[in-house]
Design a protein that fits this description.
This protein is α/β, with parallel strands linked by helices. The protein has five helices and twelve strands. This is FAD-binding oxidoreductase.
Length: 216
């Protein structure tokens, strides 16, 4: 597996817990939707993160939430510019097929930082025929919202009425049927993916058109 060192260029603060790390790209090639392992070059400790940046960016970016009790996310949270991280990869097959790239309707469903691969998809391929459902607790967790066309994006907030829909993405889907011809990509926690998959299959969407990436 390929591994290379990359220097941190910038830490972009989003919320008190969430941030984006921007590294020098150094020719790193990937397909939107893939992930890497970020490693501490001194200890070898690492964790998997989806790539947040587009294939056109000159930086390699990762959306990260500091997890309570998570030593590695805390290490990343306190990285300083010019420090180095080892990046192993890319890995994974959560990528767009030719149908989607050719304009077939696609629905992206994410919770929390699971929006990362969809951010990479849309910034890499801005002409996709997509819709996005992003489930969060609060509106300030609409990470990277500016990358999505407003009429294609629906923020589902579960703690306050501050998005386009008040409630979980599962509640939204139960109230808003999905065309059975839609190809769906799901990224987030396992509970959401399991429940959403069931809802989509009940609408007649075939299992092979429900692609998922369990994020945490």
């Amino acid at each position: 597996m390929n591994e290379s060192l990359h220097k941190l260029m910038e830490v972009e603060e989003l919320t008190p817990e969430t941030f984006v790390l921007h590294f020098e790209r150094n020719g790193f090639e990937f397909s939107p939707g893939q992930y890497v392992v970020l490693r501490d070059p001194e200890t070898g400790e690492g964790r998997e993160y989806s790539i947040y940046s587009s294939i056109h960016d000159n930086r390699l970016s990762f959306l990260i939430r500091e997890v309570e009790g998570g030593d590695f996310s805390r290490l990343l949270r306190h990285l300083k510019p010019d420090s180095e991280i080892a990046i192993e990869g890319p890995r994974g097959f959560f990528v767009l097929d030719e149908q989607v790239l050719s304009g077939h309707p696609v629905l992206f469903i994410a919770t929390g930082t699971g929006i990362s691969p969809f951010h990479s998809f849309v910034r890499s391929y801005p002409d996709l025929n997509y819709r996005v459902l992003h489930g969060v607790h609060f509106s300030d967790e609409a990470y990277g919202r500016d990358a999505f066309k407003p009429y294609r994006f629906c923020l589902c907030t579960s703690r306050v009425e501050a998005g386009e829909y008040f409630g979980r993405v599962t509640f939204y889907l139960k109230e808003n049927p999905v065309d059975p011809k839609t190809i769906c990509y799901l990224c987030g926690n396992s509970g959401m993916i399991e429940e959403v998959s069931g809802i989509l299959e009940n609408y007649g969407i075939s299992p092979e058109n429900i692609r998922s990436e369990v994020f945490f």
